[in-house]
Amino acid sequence: MLLLAFDTATPAVTAAVHDGTTVLAESTSIDARRHGELLMPAVDHVLREAGVRLDAVTGIVVGVGPGPYTGLRVGLVTAAAFGDALGIPVHGVCTLDGLAYAAGVAGLGGPFVVATDARRKEVYWARYDGPRTRATGPAVDRPGDIAAEVAGLPVVGAGAALYPEVFADVRPPADQSAGALAALAAAKLADGEEFLPPLPLYLRRPDAQVPAAYKAVLPK
Amino acid sequence: MADEPLVLGIETSCDETGVGIVRGHTLLADAVASSVDEHARFGGVVPEVASRAHLEAMVPTIQRALKEAGLAASDLDGIAVTAGPGLAGALLVGVSAAKAYAYALGKPLYGVNHLASHICVDQLEHGALPEPTMALLVSGGHSSLLLAPDITSDVRTLGSTIDDAAGEAFDKVARVLGLGFPGGPVVDKRAREGDPQAIRFPRGLTGSRDPLYDFSFSGLKTAVARWVEERRREGVEVPVADVAASFQEAVTDVLTRKAIRACRDNGVDHLMIGGGVAANSRLRSMAQERCADAGIELRVPRPKLCTDNGAMVAALGAEMVARNVAPSSLDLPADSSLPVTEPHIPGTGADAGHVHR
Ligand SMILES: [Zn+2]
């Protein structure tokens, strides 16, 4: 097994190569505005560092969000194109599940919450019973509206630190790691678990203002 | 000729997911998936709706183009993609896809200019472009007079619209007349039953002291709206066909007049017209007459190649390959305001033109 994993659903542009047992290389940079520019150099970098050729990769793992749309699409269209060009499967994984898995590696048992920044004063979030067991979500909400549901629970993900009044017990990690995403995918493959289709979890309808009816130019 | 460059082009700058494949000047495939119907109820292109549609359509449209051309992706000599100008989020889907295919297939990547592509597509219809080429580009997003001594490296703006694009004016007039979106085809259709001389609408920026090659369609649009509203206010039935024909006549009069003037002033004996509005039947016929009178050879591609499509991107990419232009690098950005003076975004660093597999 040789997995190439990446995720662009959060400000982290992260890529990793995993051989089914361990992370061979990982590259993560935080820049919410340059997903498109950073992803392919990161992929190139981790493949070189791992000393593997892209055509030796047996599967693509991609974070499917939820996340702000423009960045999210960079990872998904890249994964789809790789899958098509190389004739290999593309495994979709909920981005929040990657953070939950990393939290488990960092020692968190459960229950806990994962929250990432959804902008517009909202978070993408989910509740976990354990690092590999999502209990509810993912959803997008205003932190104040979910205060009762997350009260008393540890929270991981960069969305937590933005709203300390709601998320009091902030734990690492803050940022997505493709290494963790790949390790989760390797574990799921080993256990014969299902993946998500490599399609975006937007969780919101597109902003589309229907223009007002035709505006007259003559004075009334 | 089999040794001409075989290039796949990806276009996602607006609402069409276009993938074309060319060999040199020969069109092999032109696959398009459009989200125009999803925008119609909004009366204009909604960027987020367009971007979502591009993501869904990207891989299937590439597969369709390869099938249409009867080729495997590994046969290609390069991948070209619109790097700008256009809608930022929409461009990014195409640029990301192009990078992934180029990287996975070990092919050079060419990030090219959408406007230069609109000009270069005519090589698929009428063979090699003369140098320099004079081009009139008219669409919902652009109205420009461009002079291109070398389509791969030297494209200059002689003039452009100072307010609305010509295609936008068609959309707005269609809205005033209650004809729906997009406005271009429906105004053209209704205008065929109307009298183009019925109403004398203003010709923007055609005074003796106005800029020679710039355009303005905002005043025309307002004049049409005012004229229609006055009739409605008086309770008089609006002669839709006459309004459409007279409006269209005003637009095409200004466009062709200025384009021919630009050819004469610059000693160019060819005029290329591209962009979605180049599909307009009156613009085509008027340009034909006026060019014939002026001794200028007119080159207008078939309508499907005038609107946004992947073949035009492939055509410019093939020209880049043929002229040994250096490929773009893996950090190629999508640039929503890429100036037309940059037909191609060259590589930035050590990985330019170098593909690791
Ligand atoms: Zn265009």
UniProtKB/TrEMBL annotation, chain A:
Record-linked Gene3D superfamilies: 3.30.420.40
* Molecular function terms, GO-annotated: tRNA N(6)-L-threonylcarbamoyladenine synthase activity
Q: What EC number(s) does the entry state?
A: 2.3.1.234
Highest taxon listed in the record's lineage: Bacteria
Pfam families in UniProt: TsaD
SUPFAM superfamilies listed in its UniProt record: Actin-like ATPase domain
* UniProt keyword list: Acyltransferase, Transferase
Q: Which InterPro entries match?
A: ATPase_NBD (IPR043129), Gcp-like_dom (IPR000905), T6A_TsaB (IPR022496)
Query: Any idea where the Gcp-like domain is?
Result: 32-147
Write down what this protein is called.
tRNA (Adenosine(37)-N6)-threonylcarbamoyltransferase complex dimerization subunit type 1 TsaB
* Species this chain originates from: Streptomyces humicola
From TrEMBL, chain B:
Q: How is the cofactor bound?
A: Binds 1 Fe(2+) ion per subunit.
- Chief place of localization: cytoplasm
Which SUPFAM superfamilies does this UniProt record tie to the protein? Actin-like ATPase domain
Give the record's keywords alphabetically.
Acyltransferase, Cytoplasm, Iron, Metal-binding, Transferase, tRNA processing
Q: What class of enzyme is it?
A: transferase
- Cofactor (UniProt): Fe(2+)
The entry sums up its family as follows: Belongs to the KAE1 / TsaD family.
List the protein's name: tRNA N6-adenosine threonylcarbamoyltransferase
User: Species name for this entry?
Assistant: Streptomyces humicola
Q: What is the lineage of its organism?
A: Bacteria, Bacillati, Actinomycetota, Actinomycetes, Kitasatosporales
